Amino acid sequence: MLGKHWIELTYLLASILFIFGLRGLSHPKTARMGMNAAAIGMAIAIIGTLLKHEIVSYELIIAGLILGSLIGGAMSYWMPMTAMPQRTALSHAFGALAASIVGIAEYYEEVIVHHQTLPAYKMAALGFEVLFGSLTVTGSLLAFFKLQEMMRGTPITYKGQNVINMSLFIAAAVIFLYLIYDPTQANLFWVMVVLSFLFGVLLVLPIGSADMPVVMALMNSYAGLASAATGFAIGNNVLIIAGTLDGFSGFILSILMCKAMNRSITNVLFGAFGSVSQDTGQAVEGVMREVQVEDVAMQLAYARQVVFVPGYGLATAQAQHAVRELAEALEHKGVQVKYAIHPVAGRMPGHMNVLLAEANVPYSALYELEQINPEMQATDVSVVIGANDVVNPDARDNPKSPIAGMPIIEVDRSHQVIVLKRGKGRGFSGLENPLFFKPNTGMLYGDAKASLTKLAQAVQQA
Ligand code: NAP
Fold first, then answer.
1. Are strands 416-421 and 336-341 parallel, antiparallel or unpaired?
2. Share of the chain above pLDDT 70, in %
3. Is residue 231 included in any domain, yes or no?
């Protein structure tokens, strides 16, 4: 068995690797390295813990390791890229369940079995862990059901919802504070556990599937903080460090996503966005002009610069390989091809980066919003692939629009715009998009993958 100092050393090493991992994740180029560093860190932390003297049963741990690895392996192998948001939701639910169960077991053991009074600091850490851990379990499970379409994805609202939710949370928080004062009240502890599980469900009910990534980042942050509290409760340094890193990075991520959507976090949590038809404050005039594959292929083949703008439709159509093939066909003809990546295109942060990386699109061809917008006027053709809200000029031009102020990729400033979508379906915001009615916009209807494949063939023959 390792001595205490050696175990602390493995924890220190693991923590350093977690920090390197997070640093790596801040850029797509280094993200894979970051993931590996964090995974190695986690393995070191597990090995350090397994070599502790206080391990009760190795048999149970090995059984857990095998079962967990089988479930994790199967999930990553069989769940498609498009199901990544719900896969993450499920992982959060499992992580939070672990934190919550550790807290409940610790309380049960010390207060109920051994009739000990917990010191205030320990009860505070333990109560925090159970409160936030439990609400994250049910909240994440509900998010999973909504995203997997096992239940209605649109916001489920009723009168007085915010007041009921707030009252419930305040009741749980008051019990938590009372337990710090008198930890022996086991009945109150169980009431707090039930209220926390219930609050998780009620919190997520009014949130629509498309807002779920923000909620998931927030839940991630709660789960992290719950783990940090677990670290305090059981005196484990690596849990404190990893939990805090997780807690704060999740919180920063949710704020960044809200900023990119020009929404406040309270609007996401309590606004039930998408439940009512929105008033745009301005009717859209004009007609949508339909275009054919052959004409678009000619336009593209003779362009100097083409910018692809992928969106949620690219993910649902799984068109990432088809878009690369079209790009290669164009580059073969001497066309400069760039990809414009909006920070909230798709349904989760980095959604487009992940898909395009899977299709081996070179990272140097990806341009962020601030980089590509100044180039739009010099772009011959912008090809919008299953994107809608992220190219809606109303966000820039119509102050009454519900998405007013959201930064967009300004495809309407390029010479020609071709929009690949199946029909007249709206985007996540449910708003009409005036871009589709502009004279320099052509609509190429059809599934994005099928349209791109046909375009690539036509470009090769042009
Ligand atoms: P979007 O506004 O949701 O629009 C997607 C468009 O894709 C739809 O208009 C749909 O039109 C089309 N489409 C769907 N399936 C298709 C297919 N198989 N082939 C071709 N087209 C298809 O998507 P977006 O422009 O990417 O914007 C993302 C939205 O999600 C933003 O409003 C953002 O605020 C929100 N959001 C994003 C995140 C994030 O982290 N990325 C998080 C929360 C919310 P048809 O039905 O006519 O085909």
1. unpaired
2. 95
3. yes
